[in-house]
Amino acid sequence: xxxxxxxxxxxxxxxxxxxxxxxxxxxxxxxxxxxxxxxxxxxxxxxxxxxxxxxxxxxxxxxxxxxxxxxxxxxxxxxxxxxxxxxxxxxxxxxxxxxxxxxxxxxxxxxxxxxxxxxxxxxxxxxxxxxxxxxxxxxxxxxxxxxxx
Length: 149
Prior knowledge:
It is built from three helices and six strands, in the order αααββββββ. By secondary structure, it is of the alpha+beta class.
């Protein structure tokens, strides 16, 4: 078994994409069932749902929260940026609530290539600038500590 079994699971999902128009992709709806939001459509942001789904499938506890920046609350999972790590990025501005989360595939120069969901409406690998990285977390077999939220 791989040191990062979650990456094998995430990679197998490459190509899952949103259904154009009013339809919903069943697999994305399945991802949503791994967060407390339990969204039923693929128009609701789903990057955190994808990460939680992958972790659950690999036997690692996620945080089951629907927002990307919630993964920063997992302080005991903190790690340096490296392939396999969960990476959290800011969107629009560094301070705020909007973000993106996915798994680091590789790092090349000033770019972090992220294997994630809801990247141009699909599961794929896309580059993100290093300067937008808020933090990285390494999945652990033990459940995350409960927060006051």
